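Task card 7
Instruction: Convert sequence to structure tokens.
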Amino acid sequence: MRAIQIDRFGTPDVLGIVDAPQPEPGAEDVLIRTVATSINPVDDKTREGAIGEGTPPLPMTLGWDLAGIVVDGGTSGLRAGERVIAMSHQLSSGRGTWADLVALPAQAVAAAPHAVSLVEAATLPLPGLSAWQTLDWLAVSSGQRLLIAGAAGAVGGLALQIARARGITVDALVSRDAQAGFARDHGADLVTTDRHALQDRSYDAVFDTFGAFVTEAVADGGRYASIATQAGPVPDLSSRGVRTTVNQVREDGTGLSELTKLVDRGSLRLRMHSTFGLHEIQAAHDSFLRGGLTGKVTVIF
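Output:
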């Protein structure tokens, strides 16, 4: 079968399509034929060798996101031919999704949304779970105020929509004026590019997607979550009774099922910037690296 692998770290030209052995699913696994995947920042960092310790051994198959068709559901109850999505924690498991066939634990797999194509659905797993799981940790509820730093990015844009679907009042800090329209159109109240426009200690929770560290914005006794692992830990706010975390995404089929419901209800709209074929994987990465994306870069198998 075909797989996208690297045997050394470097620029996108280290990405190659190889003939790899088919996976042998275990008793608790689901075997999936890949239809589409998408590129995430972690894929880029892994390719260039920026992860450091914990990187799977070379050669490795990359990829976290997956949308495809069940080949063998094993004991999961999923039937051959069903449309599914999944996220593989490639760094910890070594199971990359950029391959024709992928075997993943059943608990990491969920039925795909009906309202969108599988190519669109491939944009959801990693950023969607990052948003969903971090919002759960923040424990912000209907009627409370949430600030999202980076509310127009892949994770932040989904977090904004999920939070609004939960009845949460959301303000948005975005990087560029061009992103303000997206945040307003998806329900943010205050939208700004200026962190100094944020009122101090006025938010029950802050969701920081890029290491903004707008720590003065969170209220005493609130919560502050970052997903920007490369930016380091959140400053200690315990003197103000603020709990902090740098949240790490985990495989979660149950969470994906909840995200699928939001997509099918129209509460969660997915964004694609561009689509490439498998043999255009280097060009897909080049597009990702150029930035200025209005959605995710997807790859079709």
